[in-house]
Amino acid sequence: MKTLLITAFLSCSLLTLKAQNKTKMETQKESITAISHLLENNYFKGIYEGDTALLGTVYHKGTLLFGDVKGQPYAKTLEQYLDGVKNRQSPKESGKPFKGEILNIRVINSIAVAEIKVTMYDFIYQEFLSFHKIDGKWFLVNKMISDIADQAAVAPVVSAKTVVIATIHILPGFEKEVKDAAKIMEVASNKETDCEQFVANVQNDSPQTIVIYEAYKSEEAFKLHKTSPHAKAFFAAVKGKIVNDKIETIFLSDLK
After folding, report:
1. Domain check: are 194 and 105 in the same one?
2. DSSP E strands: which ranges in 121-241?
3. Predicted confidence band at 10 (pLDDT cuts at 50, 70, 90)?
């Protein structure tokens, strides 16, 4: 009898715990949805249209704003911020691109943090917005921003490493000339700043076939190699001495 009572108690406890977890997850989901709706329909729209009344529905009256803009410290009260919005040309009126993106929202009970990105005028703002649920409604209670436009503008676009296998079939009678030219090309290519490796070999079962392994730090480096003085000299030296005046190339990539 005692065992049955304990089993029943544990079963009841587990069911209660599952119900509580389910309720908590549903509540969290509802909160994320509510904050997303507030950001999309009030925050982004209010900034885009310069609508301070709409923005006022998002902020708590005691909200403070901190961060940096163009490398300079930024600190404002909500009143100062809304006054600035009211007296500037809105992004909508400017005709310049505007985009608001929700990157992440995390909710714990009555508090939440949203990470967003706002592109407007010549700025790209990365923002962390703190929310608090007061009397059943979510309010933005603290705003941290950083203008990342300069970083985005200067961020280098780096292309992938380029690896090539080049095969050359020598016409009979020109073996020495082509091989000598390949040796010169090998030495000069390995001196290129962004050339990681350039190795020319003769295929074991075909003495008239040269196989070259080439590796460059980027696609741009490979393009520079092809237009280099030593590459042009090599192409001129082997012209009329290789099959169809053609160098067969195969491009390789790392295993994913």
Report:
1. no
2. 123-134, 137-147, 162-169, 195-203, 206-216
3. low
Q: Residue with structure tokens 């490493």? A: 161
- Is residue 38 domain-shared with residue 89, that is, in the same domain? yes
Task: Examine the pLDDT at 43 and tell me if it is beyond 60.
Answer: yes
**Within-domain flag for 16:** no
Q: What is the pLDDT of residue 151?
A: 77
Within a domain: residue 4? no
Residue-wise pLDDT tens digits, 199-240: 999 999 999 999 999 999 998 899 999 999 999 999 999 999
The shares of helix, strand and coil residues in the chain, as percent rounded to the nearest 5, are 40, 35, 20
Residues 252 and 183: their CA atoms lie apart, in Å, by: 23
Q: Considering 120, 154, 188, which residue would you say is the last residue of a domain?
A: 154
Side-chain-side CA neighbours of residue 103 (13 Å): 12
**Considering the domain boundaries, does residue 108 fall inside one?**
yes
For residue 228, what are the domain limits?
162-252
pLDDT at residue 31 greater than cutoff 80: yes
- Sign of the dihedral through C-alpha 54, 56, 57, 63: positive
pLDDT of residue 209: 97
- Name the token pair of 231: 């590459």
CATH number of the domain to which 236 belongs: 3.30.70.100
Look at residues 109, 127, 154 and tell me which one is the last residue of a structural domain: 154
- Decide if pLDDT at 158 tops 60: no
